[in-house]
Amino acid sequence: MTASTLLRDLGALLLMVAWVIAAHVGSNGWGNADFNAAVAVLPIAVAVLMALWRLSHWAVRGAGVLALGALLAWLWPQLRHNVALLYYIQHLGIHIALGVLFGKSLLGPGDALITRMARRIFGTELSERKLRYTRGATLAWTVFFFANALVSTGLFIWAPPAIWSIHANVLTGPLIGLMFLGEHLVRLRVLPPHERPGLADIRRAYQRESARRSTAPPPP
After folding, report:
1. What is the percentage of the chain residues whose pLDDT exceeds 70?
2. Cα–Cα distance between 198 and 202 in angstroms, integer?
3. pTM, to two decimals
4. Which residues are CB-contacts of 15 (< 8 A; sequence separation ≥ 6)?
5. Cβ count within 10 A of residue 55
6. pLDDT tens digit sequence for 98-156
7. Which residues in the chain land under pLDDT 70?
8. Closest CA to 102 of 179, 187, 49, 212
């Protein structure tokens, strides 16, 4: 691992920690309401701006940016008093989107999502054993994302804000880490060494996929 890669990973880790702290503070109503609302709105605004950027006509992009700014200005008094709701919408939306992404790949005759990732890593035909494992792993992640979204919703409705915030903002990362660990342990048990990718293989496959997506032309 090069020094630049190490620094980049460290920076990403520090940013994630800062985001967890900001989300927990904002969800509990501590600190400045405007700052908390701005931090909570930022990911949503960035996602909308990225979608607008992919539009072909500059006038449409400009109109979209103006409409987003006007909408935020109009809703700001409500947003600054409902920061926890903003974080809940983010948490719920991300989990549902990932659950749909994984689950949709299980439908129809094509490969499951993790099966497709395995094909990119190995670049060869997969054994029946690995096909079963990757499909089962895709199903497990689908259940995890939808289950965590359901738990988050229940806690947001019925539990105190601090309890929901601990689950959604503090524990979601460790829970995902436990899922990766559980999947790794199952993989060690059911797959022979030559069918198990290493961390370097997974990282290279992710980098290739990210590069492919970044160079792909936007849809017409």
Report:
1. 85
2. 6
3. 0.81
4. none
5. 15
6. 999 999 999 988 899 888 888 887 766 788 898 899 999 999 999 999 999 999 999 99
7. 1-6, 123-124, 198-220
8. 179
Q: Are 143 and 151 in contact (CB under 8 A)?
A: no
Alpha helix ranges (H) inside 28-171 = 33-53, 58-79, 83-104, 113-122, 128-158, 161-165
Nearest to 131 by CA among 117, 146, 145: 117
- Supply 207's token pair: 């980098």
Return the ∠ at Cα 171 (arms to 167 and 175), rounded to 5°.
120
The first and second tokens of residue 145, run together, are 């994302």
Question: Who's near 190: CB < 8 A, 6+ residues apart?
Answer: 129, 133
| Cα–Cα dist 65/106, whole Å | 36
Euclidean distance between CA atoms 112 and 129, whole angstroms: 14
Report the distance separating Cα 62 and Cα 55, nearest Å: 10
For residue 10, what are the CA distances in angstroms to 14, 34, 83, 100, 184? Answer: 6, 29, 28, 30, 23
| Cα separation, 184 vs 140, whole angstroms | 13
